[in-house]
Specification:
This protein has four helices and 13 strands. With 205 residues, it is α/β, with parallel strands linked by helices. Strand 11 and strand 12 form a beta hairpin. The structure holds zinc ion (ZN).
């Protein structure tokens, strides 16, 4: 694997993959390394994600680092002033303008590490991720373990009452273990195209 990082100037690292692939852990690991080296570090995440306590990013394994919830990508740029490294968790929940914001930070000399789901529960590219991955210097696509066959999982299966969520269901639904499974391409099931009763959703964001 080629790992040449610029010795000067900024750049963008993207960490993507399905749920349960360790994206937040990897983000926190990289930020901790920078922190230990005495660099000023910040994590931003969309305010919509309040699964755990606001003010921290918590991975499924329980590691945590201080984080700031923001409503729009412009706030990331404003709050990142003075930082050496900026991490963004759940970056897929932001709109397309997040790409411009992160490019601006990297152009300004900052190291940017963005973690997020590359695919939604339909197996389709998630929001700003294609543009972000194309513009990043470094991309890591992490794998989880398929809950059905034990193979490497690249997709997030959403289950509603134990069956695959319909294809036209809301894209964004912040949830936990009982509603989502990591699955491989072969075990991933496409939901039917008909609607079901509206679940808690943040589709308006
Ligand atoms: Zn499988």
């Amino acid at each position: 694997m080629i790992r040449n990082q610029p010795s000067c100037g900024g750049w963008i690292e993207a960490v993507c993959g399905p749920m349960f692939s360790g994206k937040s852990e990897e983000l926190i690991r990289r930020l901790r390394r920078a922190e230990i080296a005495g660099q000023a570090v910040m994590i931003a995440k969309p305010r919509i994600d309040d699964r755990y306590d606001i003010g921290h990013v918590v991975s499924h394994s329980g590691h945590r680092i201080r984080a700031v919830g923001v409503d729009d990508p412009g706030a990331i740029v404003r709050m990142a002033a003075g930082c050496h490294v900026v991490g963004i968790d759940e970056v897929q929940f932001f709109g397309g303008e997040v790409v411009d914001a992160l490019v601006a930070l990297a152009d300004g000399g900052m190291r940017v590490i963005a973690a997020g789901l590359d695919l939604d529960f339909r197996g389709e590219p998630f929001g700003p991720m294609p543009q972000l991955l194309a513009r990043a210097e470094l991309v890591d696509k992490l794998q989880a373990v398929c809950l059905c066959c034990g193979g490497p999982a690249t997709r997030t299966q959403r289950l509603v009452d134990g069956v695959p969520a319909p294809f036209d269901g809301a894209t964004i639904q912040v949830g936990a273990l009982d509603a989502y499974e990591a699955r491989c391409r072969g075990c991933f099931e496409q939901g039917d195209a008909h609607s079901w009763g509206e679940q808690t959703s943040f589709a308006g964001l």
